[in-house]
């Protein structure tokens, strides 16, 4: 009996096949860690200690799993970004802080997944097309956010590009930035993106949202 047969037997004995979410989460983790070639049925079954045949209860084939990965990326990253741009804000600076929250720990945007999908796009014209659509959709959402606060269309477009391209640069360069450093830069980023400085009250709410306490005084 080979390893695959042993796993199939174990799966039949326990009756546990996992779930669509379990298989998809394992695929996403493997994809982020090791790239597209790691997203294969048998290695995922081994990772999950499930039978290979269990996979087929939830996905027709590997292509269906890969498509589900892209759908998850679109829902999580593009969907989360759009929701952030539409979140309640009394000022443009508060709106920009809402958007900034998406890219910090606890935000919906998964930077490592975005980076992995962009790498995949270099291998597939179909994926590259979906990335292009996602980028334009995200930019349009950010433009609409600036439009909502009365910016001229051309200015809204440039400001949206500045916000988004800076963030994509962070992702593409895999910048590792200490939270305290990032938080110290946030007010100037907001001023650069919007032309206005955030109020101390807005920054206090932003800090609280992320469980951050700025150091005060000389200590």
Notes on the protein architecture:
- With 219 residues, the chain is an all-alpha fold.
- It has two domains: 3-59, Arc Repressor Mutant, subunit A, CATH 1.10.10; 64-209.
- 69% of the residues lie in helices and 0% in strands.
- It contains ten helices and no strands.
- The chain has helices at 3-14, 20-34, 41-48, 62-86, 92-102, 111-121, 125-148, 153-172, 179-194, 200-209.
- Helix 7 packs across helix 8.
Sheet-strand content, in percent, reads under 5%
Distance between the termini: 66 Å
Oligomerization status of the protein chains = single chain
**Low-confidence stretches at least 5 residues in length (pLDDT < 50)?**
1-14
The residue-averaged pLDDT reads 92
**C-alpha Rg, in Å?**
21 Å
Elements, N to C (H/E): HHHHHHHHHH
Helical stretch count? 10
What kind of sheet is the major sheet?
A: none
How many β-strand runs? 0
Number of domains: 2
The coarse silhouette is elongated
- Helical fraction equals 55-70%
Structural class: mainly alpha
Q: How is the secondary structure organized here?
A:
Layout (H helix, E strand, L loop, with lengths): L2 H12 L5 H15 L6 H8 L13 H25 L5 H11 L8 H11 L3 H24 L4 H20 L6 H16 L5 H10 L10
Helix pairs in contact: 2-3, 4-5, 4-7, 5-9, 5-10, 6-7, 7-8
Question: What distinguishing features does this structure have?
Answer:
219 residues, mainly alpha, Arc Repressor Mutant, subunit A, 2 domains, 10 helices, 0% strand
Give the gist of this structure.
With 219 residues, the protein is mainly α.
